[in-house]
């Protein structure tokens, strides 16, 4: 562990370096080597020491000239590691270890705010908003006024009334 501060860096409080001791550096660097770790420890109700959370700094690609890195925040959930937040290259994963989009969320997503809280596309090309659901289940997009549902567009769980193997589309007003 090393903290440095000099010249311009002093304004921001210096730089913290996490680096393996030369004796711990792998003889042959490999993808996904951990370059540093910050660990928070605690005590559970049985007075046993436990790891509460880790922040990993990882090199995901060691190829010279094309190196990639990741920062992973891991918390405990029911006594096991839960990879909660992963910054990999130029992508963010929430509950997703290997994000495949700029923001990849696994689980429920709640966006709150006033005004515009979500915008799809930048006006320069086509844009899609996709809602998927398993066969036989409902997929729905709804509009609310306060806590009151006002309009919904949904795919219901019933078999389509035509000869295709899909579902019925419904526009609902409340």
Structure, described:
- It is a single chain.
- This protein has a six-stranded mixed sheet with strand order 3-4-5-6-7-8, with no helix packed on it. Strands 9-10-11 form a three-stranded antiparallel sheet, with no helix packed on it. A two-stranded antiparallel ribbon has the order 1-2.
- The chain has strands at residues 2-4, 15-17, 33-43, 49-61, 68-77, 80-88, 91-94, 103-105, 139-145, 148-159, 167-173.
- It has 174 residues and is mainly beta.
- It starts with a strand and ends with a strand.
- The mean pLDDT is 81.
Secondary-structure map:
Elements lengths: L1 E3 L10 E3 L15 E11 L5 E13 L6 E10 L2 E9 L2 E4 L8 E3 L33 E7 L2 E12 L7 E7 L1
Parallel strand pairs: 7-8
Antiparallel strand pairs: 1-2, 3-4, 4-5, 5-6, 6-7, 9-10, 10-11
Brief write-up:
With 174 residues, the chain is mostly beta strands. Helix content is 0%, strand content 47%.
Q: How far is it from the N-terminal to the C-terminal residue, by CA?
A: 61 Å
Structural class: mainly beta
Task: Using the alpha-carbon principal axes, give the shape.
Answer: elongated
Total DSSP E strands: 11
Determine Rg (CA atoms, Å): 24 Å
Q: Order of strands across the biggest sheet?
A: 3-4-5-6-7-8
What helical percentage do the residues reach? under 10%
SSE topology string: EEEEEEEEEEE
Average predicted local confidence, pLDDT: 81
Low-confidence stretches: none
Strand percentage lies at over 45%
Total helices: the number is: 0
* Main pleated sheet: 6 strands, mixed
